[in-house]
Amino acid sequence: MGIPAVFGLGTSLKPEFSGRVAYMDGETGAIFLEPDELTLLAFREKYEKEQQMKQLLQSMRGQEDITLDGKKINVYCNIGSPEDVAAVQANDGQGIGLFRSEFLYLAASDYPSEEEQFQAYKSVAAATNGKRVIIRTLDIGADKQVDYFDMKKEENPALGLRAIRICLNRPEVFRPQLRALYRASAYGKIAIMFPMITSVWEVKECKRACQAVMKELKEEGIPFNPETEIGIMIETPASVFIAEELAKHVDFFSVGTNDLTQYTLACDRQCNDLGKFLDPHHPAVLRAIKMAADAAHANGIWIGVCGELGADLSLLPTFLAMGLDELSVTPSAVLPLRAEIRKSIAKTCTLEMLEC
Ligand code: PEP
Ligand code: MG
C-alpha cells in the first residue's frame, strides 16, 4: 500500500511512548522518538530523495520488463484482496502472480460461500483486462488461524495441518473454492496455484478435484475455461528435491521464498530473535531456487518467485542468471524492479551468490 511500517518491535515498544512524536524509517526499521534537529534534517533529505525517485520511476510506466540484451521477465504483483487491484494498475503490474485467497477467509466470521468467492475472483479477473491472475487456493494454518475452522491446537503449526493439507482433508472446503475459481475463469485469464506441496500424490489429488469440478460445471451448463493453468508453490525442501517429477504434472512453479527459507534453514519466519540465522540469501536457499528453475525448464514449464525475495534488487542478477521467467512482488516494488531490469545485461549475470 506504500505506507511505511515497522513491525516486530516486541517489548521494546513501551506503553510510555504513547502520545510522543515518532519518526520512522520503514526501509531500515528504525524509529526515532522526538528526534533532534539533525536527525530531522536527515529524515527530510531522505524523504525528498525518495519522492524524487518515485517521480523518476513514473517514466517506467508502460515500459517492457526486458534487459538490455533482450531477456524478458514478467513482473507481476502480489495481492490480498480485490481492492488491491487498484495498486496493481497504479504501479503498472503486468499481471497478478499471487492472490492470497485466504484473506477472504481471514476477514470473514464463517466460511465464505462459493458465490462470495466467485464474485471476488471474477472482479479481479475482469479488472485485469486479460492479464494473468494467479489465485492461490486457501493457505491457512500456521501463522494464519481462523476460528471457525475449529482446528486442533498443534505443537508445531508451521509443520502441521495447513494449506493444501487442510484442503485435501476437507473436500467440503476445497470444492466450493475450486468451483468459484473455475466459474471465474470464464471472465479473465485465471490460473490456479496450490500451496505447501510436498508430494506428487497431492498434486494428482488436486488435479482430480479440478477435473471433478469441471465435470460438474459442464453438466450444469456453467461456463469455465477448461485450459485454466495449474501451478504449484515451491516452498518446501521436499518440493525442490522432487521438482523434476512435479514439473511433469503442472503448468508452472512459483517459489515461495518466505516459507522455503523457513523450512530450508529450520528457522521460524515469525521469530524476531533469529537475526542473522534467518538469512534468505543463504546459499542453500538460492541453490534450492536454482534446482527448481532447472527442473522447470528441463520439463518445459515456466517458473517465478512470489516470496519477498522477488523484490530484492540485490538478487536480480542471480535470478536473471537462473533464467527465472517471472517475479511477483508487492505493487510498490514493480517500478523500481523494472528500472533495474532495464539496466541489466542478463548474459553477464553470474551465480556467484550461490557460493558459500
Ligand atoms: C511464501 O511462502 O514465500 C509465500 C509467498 O507465501 P506466504 O508468504 O503467503 O506464506
Ligand atoms: Mg508460503
Tell me the overall shape. globular
* Low-pLDDT segments: none
Q: Which percent range fits the helix content?
A: 25-40%
The value of Rg in angstroms is 21 Å
What is the terminal-to-terminal distance?
Answer: 36 Å
The secondary-structure class comes to alpha/beta
Order of helices and strands: EEHEHEHHEHHEHEHHEHHEHEH
**Overall strand count:** 10
Largest sheet: 8 strands, parallel, barrel
Unique bound compounds: phosphoenolpyruvate, magnesium ion
By DSSP (H or I, 4+ residues per run), the number of helices equals: 13
Question: What's the average pLDDT?
Answer: 96
* Approximate strand percentage: 5-15%
Major beta sheet, strand line-up: 3-4-5-6-7-8-9-10
Written description of the protein model:
- There is one protein chain.
- This protein is of the alpha/beta class and 356 residues long.
- Helix content is 39%, strand content 13%.
- It has helices spanning 37-57, 85-90, 102-106, 114-127, 164-169, 171-184, 200-220, 237-241, 243-247, 257-265, 283-298, 316-322, 334-343; strands at residues 22-25, 30-33, 74-79, 96-100, 132-136, 189-194, 229-234, 252-255, 302-305, 326-329.
- The strands form two sheets. The chain has an eight-stranded parallel beta barrel with strand order 3-4-5-6-7-8-9-10, surrounded by five helices. Strands 1-2 form a two-stranded antiparallel ribbon.
- The longest helix is centred in the N-terminal third of the chain and has 21 residues, at 37-57.
- The chain binds phosphoenolpyruvate and magnesium ion.
- Magnesium ion is lined by residues 195, 235, 256, 258-259.
